Amino acid sequence: MTLTRISASAAILAMLAAAPAAATPAPPSAAAKVAADGTLISGIGVGNASHVGIGVYVVSFTNSAVPTSCAYTASVGGTPGEGVGPNLVNVGGTVPNLVSVGGTVTPGSATGDVYVYTYSAATHAPADLPFNIYVACPQL
Amino acid sequence: MFSKNLLLACCAATLMFVPAVAAPDTPADGFIVVDANGGVARASQGYGVFKFGTGAYEVSYTSSLHNCAYSITAGSSDNTVPPESFATIVGRRENQLVLEVQTFDSTGQPADEGFHLIVRC
Lengths: 140, 121
What we know:
The complex is a heterodimer of chains A (140) and B (121).
Chain A: H1 2-18, E1 29-34, E2 40-44, E3 46-53, E4 56-61, H2 66-69, E5 71-76, E6 87-93, E7 98-101, E8 104-107, E9 113-120, E10 131-136
Chain B: H1 2-17, E1 30-34, E2 40-43, E3 48-53, E4 56-60, E5 69-74, E6 85-92, E7 95-105, E8 115-120
Antiparallel strand pairs in B: 1-2, 1-8, 3-4, 4-7, 5-8, 6-7
């Protein structure tokens, strides 16, 4: 009986050792869908969005480390059925409590702000366009 | 015989109690933020970059990236306003560990620009 217990225990240990190690959890993610006028349509881990200039948007994520610890990519795209022409989009972070717009720095109010800049590809001028932004972060 | 049955029962019970593991994320899942000079501002472990020309960068990882999705946007890694620019990305056919990033200015000319890259596999 003792031998049986030992065998069973050994078998269990062997199985546990062979069980695939739990993968590192995916990085926390956040995302936002923003209308051309800066309205936050939907999102995950985002507080609000605002339109602060022509083709300039601030997306305020709830995690204040997003601007300095994460990567964020954005694509111009509207709501279903909303067509958008050729365009460009760029992203940039800000230091906490500062807002960078057009090269000037003015006081801001939030710490999780990421800036999105949208342009018309036809004119190369800043243009108000809807966009989606996706954020990937390390384990914070 | 009793012992064998007991052993099988134990093993079966163990299998039931091993916590279910969700489909593991492929280790290549990650990101990298690169400045215009090819410096790494921040990145997931294992990611690196090499600048090999004007607006030309190689992003590398320690395992294959070929079956992954890449999302890239030109932009700054700090509080500076990025210039109007764009970025493209493609996997290297001859090296599955490497992605080639090209960045351009607003006129479409190769130019050194920062970028944010997210990889999901």
